[in-house]
UniProtKB/TrEMBL annotation:
It comes from the Bacteria. This is ChrR family anti-sigma-E factor. Residues 127-198 form the ChrR-like cupin domain. InterPro entries: Anti-sigma_ChrR, Anti_sigma_zinc_sf, ChrR-like_cupin_dom, RmlC-like_jellyroll, RmlC_Cupin_sf.
Length: 223
């Protein structure tokens, strides 16, 4: 694993200052990256220490007795319930089966049907009811996606296998953040496929070949 979110993005994640879609991609990355996970823990501890030194808020901001009573009477999960592991969830695409990261388990019922692009590229939308588009993307071995850029931001997290573009080769766990300043053409090796989690704030804009027809009327294309 060579490509990670920058420290500012991790700090924003620890402070809760990222949107739901970006937060999901980061949570999946943290699940497989001890280095970034520890960095987030450090940021959270720093934030906690800062809060401890702040003055107490006025008493009228504190929970009322009725509210406290309601909280204390809420049903509590037993230790046994908390220790029960989540059942692994798998997706099947192009006759291949993949186990999803645990951070995606709560959204397994929000994964749409796989759409096929020419028999080599597949996508399935994860409906988070957010403006940004979240997809699972699968590329078969030996695939090259036409060169494109982005009207907004594209976050990509490699879940399985790997792919290359003009900036390097990416393996499982790697996190990429691309913007309008980048043009790239993701390509899988001849002997390896790739499954990714993709977050797009705006459609892709193709910059080469006949794929530019999708840019008509300035709309671009969501995979």
């Amino acid at each position: 694993m060579r490509f990670h979110p920058d420290k500012l993005l991790l700090q924003q994640y620890a402070q809760g200052d990222v949107d739901a879609t970006q937060g999901l991609a980061l949570a999946v990355h943290l699940e497989s990256c001890p280095e970034c996970h520890q960095q987030v823990v450090r940021f959270e501890r720093q934030l906690g220490a800062k809060l401890e030194h702040q003055a107490m808020k006025p008493s009228d901001d504190l929970p009322s007795e009725d509210m406290l009573s309601q909280i204390l009477t809420l049903p509590q999960k037993s230790r046994e319930e908390l220790l029960v592991p989540s059942k692994p969830h798998q997706v099947t695409v192009n006759s291949r089966r993949f186990t999803l990261p645990k951070a995606l388990y709560p959204f397994r019922d929000r994964i749409g049907d796989w759409r096929n692009y020419g028999g080599k590229v597949f996508s399935a939308v994860i409906d988070l009811e957010e403006e940004a588009r979240v997809n699972l993307m699968y590329m078969a071995p030996g695939v090259s996606v036409p060169q494109h850029t982005h009207k907004g931001y594209e976050s990509t997290l490699v879940l399985h296998g790997g792919f290359s573009d003009e900036d390097g080769h990416y393996r499982a766990g790697d996190f990429l953040l691309k913007d309008a300043s980048v043009k790239h053409s993701p390509t899988t090796p001849q002997d390896e496929d790739c499954l990714c989690l993709s977050v797009l704030t705006e459609p892709m804009l193709f910059t080469q070949g006949v794929a530019r027809i999708f840019n008509m009327f300035g709309k671009g294309l969501y995979p």
